[in-house]
Design brief:
The chain is α+β, with helices and mostly antiparallel strands. Helix content is 46%, strand content 13%.
Length: 367
């Protein structure tokens, strides 16, 4: 270590961290010379624990991999089991799944907006974002009985149909969000102070983003239109009018604006779900879940979470529980490979700025 070089531990208690994550920084003055991420402050071993639980018992477990956005984790596990077992999901259930995926995406983006605005000192939009997320959690509670871990997706569909009046409540919320967007724009997204703080920070080229395995806003912030909902439509996304928003600069500002634009798209998709919602059953009956044996085989399925491609490789040996399971999570690459690369040469004040723009969720790394 050079004479003027100092090791600085950033997190896990620091305000700018997401979850129990720590970054060891070697700095000279306020310039970062190198960074090493340590995600090992959280419960872990989800993939191994899945091997000791039957197929249905894993649903309450897998959603803990991302406490901010549990729906894609449930969804990808349900889809993998359905693929192995050859289960067809009813059309209405596919629409409801699409609806809750977009509700979950909005909830996650509101959490990201709250975290980002808080660390940069934009307190007013931070309070709005957390308040709007709470309204979404109220809707999830009406639908599933829970606010954070919903355990709503099941092999064959969803646990229960939409409660009476739910679509009207959701539509009222969407209208309120649409009307409040100009306020979010003026106070944060299009605020000159935010532009000066985030523009040119944490910049990554399209070539580097692809080479390092980036996904979600990391790719779309570089101008690459990569979205699993468009490339490999699942649930009812093939029936949705969906645009993939992109920006060209590849910096923190571009990534956050992509998130803003995706929130607008989610509102549009949710309104389409309400308008096009078919009738029919929401669940395809399956065998007794505690005695259910899935045919031998392997599969890989993926969905588009709020942070990018979220995949699951699942293996069955013909028994009543998974033989092997391995998740592909956006934060594993964004929080270990890309974050360490982008922090080199950055200012200490921009550690949280860069990390939050990469949308790092610690449990997705240390699983």
């Amino acid at each position: 270590m050079a004479e003027r070089e100092l090791e600085l531990i950033f997190g896990p208690q620091h305000l700018g961290m997401i979850g129990n994550l720590s970054i060891s920084l070697n700095v000279e003055g306020d310039t970062i010379l190198s960074a090493r991420v340590n995600p090992g402050y959280l419960h872990r071993g989800f993939e191994k624990l899945m091997e000791y639980r039957n197929w249905i018992q894993n649903f309450p477990l897998v959603c803990r991999i991302n406490m901010i956005e549990s729906e894609p984790v449930e969804m990808v596990y349900a889809m993998a089991v359905e693929d192995l077992a050859g289960i067809e999901v009813p059309e209405r259930a596919q629409y409801i799944r699409t609806m809750i995926q977009e509700m979950s995406r909005l909830s996650c983006h509101f959490t990201a907006a709250w975290a980002y605005t808080s660390i940069l000192g934009f307190d007013t939009p931070a309070q709005w974002a957390m308040g709007d997320r709470d309204y979404l959690l109220d809707l999830f509670e009406d639908l599933t009985g829970a606010r954070v871990y919903h355990i709503y997706n099941m092999p064959g569909g969803v646990r229960r149909d939409l409660p009476e009046g739910f679509e009207d409540k959701l539509l009222a919320f969407l209208d309120a969000i649409h009307n409040r967007l100009p306020d979010y724009n003026s106070t944060f997204f299009e605020n000159r102070l935010f532009y000066e703080r985030a523009s040119g920070i944490g910049k990554i080229s399209p070539e580097d983003a692809i080479e390092m395995g980036g996904t979600g806003q990391v790719l779309r912030g570089c101008g690459i239109k990569h979205d699993i909902r468009k490339l490999e439509p699942y649930a009812a996304y093939s029936d949705m009018d969906l645009e993939v928003p992109t920006r060209e600069a590849g910096d923190a500002y571009s990534r956050v604006l992509v998130i803003r634009d995706e929130m607008v798209q989610s509102v549009s998709i949710l309104k389409q779900c309400i308008e096009k919602m078919p009738s029919g059953k929401v669940y395809e009956k399956t065998p007794n879940p505690f005695k259910w044996k899935i045919p031998k085989g392997e599969t890989y399925v993926r969905v588009e979470s709020a942070r990018g491609e979220f995949g699951l490789y699942l293996v069955s040996n013909g028994g009543n529980r998974p033989y092997r399971a391995h998740f592909k999570t956006p934060s594993f690459v964004h929080g270990l490979v890309i974050l360490e690369r982008l922090l080199k040469g950055a200012n200490i004040a921009d550690v949280g700025n860069i990390m939050l723009s990469l949308y790092v969720i610690a449990p997705e790394i240390d699983r």
